[in-house]
Amino acid sequence: MDKMWSGRFSASASSLLDQFNASIMYDRKLYKEDIEGSLAHATMLEKQGILTREELTLIKDGLAQVLTEIESGEFEWKISDEDLHMGIEKRLTAIIGDAGKKLHTARSRNDQVAVDFRRFVIRKNREIAEALRALMAELLVVAKEHTTTLIPGMTHLQHAQPINFAFHLAAYMAMFKRDIDRFESSAKRNNISPLGCAALAGTPHNVDRELTAELLGFDSVSVNCLDTVSDRDFALEILFNISTMMMHISRLSEELVMWSSYEFGFVELSDEYSTGSSIMPQKKNPDVPELLRGKTGRVYGSLMGLLTVMKGLPLAYNKDTQEDKEGVFDAVETAEISLEILKEAIKTMEVKANNMESACAIGHLSATDLADYLVEKCDIPFREAHFITGRAVAKGEELGVDLSKMEYKYLKEIDERIGEDVMEYLGLRHSMNARTSQGGTASSRTEEQLAYFENFLQGK
Ligand code: ARG
After folding, report:
1. End-to-end CA distance of the chain, in Å?
2. Distance, CA of 164 to CA of 142 (rounded, Å)
3. Three-state SS at 447
4. What does the pLDDT look like over 288-323, one tens digit per residue?
5. Which pLDDT tens digit goes with each residue over 66-116?
6. Are 347 and 254 in contact, with CB atoms under 8 Å apart?
7. Please, what's the largest Cα pairwise distance for the chain?
8. Best mutation site among 88, 322, 323, 325 for ligand 1, i.e. most ligand atoms within 8 A of its Cβ?
9. Does the beta carbon of 83 lie inside 6 Å of ligand 1?
10. pTM value > 0.85
11. Roughly what angle, to the nearest 10 degrees, separates helices 109-144 and 443-457?
């Protein structure tokens, strides 16, 4: 009968129940948040005259000792203590005696866990945003070197129009910037203190919620206690933020996998971030981007898992909610290592600009330019220009030459309105640089985009 809540029970909990019920083996990750929460709570209790100065000193010193014990690995995490809140409080009381028993005045594990987990999630939103900035900075380094490197722009994975490689990377920077905005806005929006809500209905003790909120770095105090102790929107948000970020990472990874194949040959991942085969000696496998792609699925699972846990829960706290943590911990760890390794893989990969450019010489990438020429120079309606260009492409297929390399005489045969100046329009670099509309691929426009992301990274 060593449970803190054992007063109304006459038999001890079965060890099977302990195993099933406990969260201490994973929620111990929140020990810092928990101790800081207790310190803020005790400080407030003393200021409100609920604890004496001596009691507060004892609690502070005791919690400092518990912290040291945890960080040195001395602390004994016992499944029978159920969760970290009770494990820490029990140890505190063992160290300082009766004063430890007063710490839980005007508090419940329901607001305690809401405080700890919320602060953890807010911190992780901020840290992941920082790691994303570091990844973006690495992409920017590569992009800056390739604002004139041609690469086939694709739709449906078919050659579409020539673009430059920096423009392609800038597309991912745009995604990652939105991800950063999402992580940062979640951190801001959810920075609201649950402390003082107690079990569900508030407390009759004269607490000062504004003070504990301030001590813990929250921007404000929650409005309704019943909502506060059962709300896990903040956890769903970080799971959604990570899922969306991983979806972006997975798309880039898919391209890295393709680009590092013989068929593409656009990049070569460094030896440090590639793996070999146990049977085929020649193999160099892109395990890093493949795993990034794979781990994305697992993160989505955590999001769906928690959404499903939360649906149908009556107010307020229910034990189901304890299932909120493992998926978030796992997704956060996945996000952290994924960002780190992707950054390193990008930093160390070799970009094979020549292969990218040669790949542009197939697939008639400048076909749209011919149509645009017919519209602009010959005053032909676009739909008709599209048809004429289609015939030119068919001719190219017949001759086995790319439109960008076709001799003028063939074009003239297709439509005599086509002037010799068309040859300039069909050049691939011309085609890329012609796309000067805002947000377009022209090198000048791409440089603007890179400058935009650079300013963003510099906080301008
Ligand atoms: N271990 C619990 C959790 O993670 C803490 C809150 C428990 N509250 C309760 N009334 N049983 O959700």
Report:
1. 60
2. 12
3. helix
4. 999 999 999 999 999 999 999 999 999 999 999 999
5. 999 999 999 999 999 999 999 999 999 999 999 999 999 999 999 999 999
6. no
7. 100
8. 322
9. yes
10. yes
11. 140
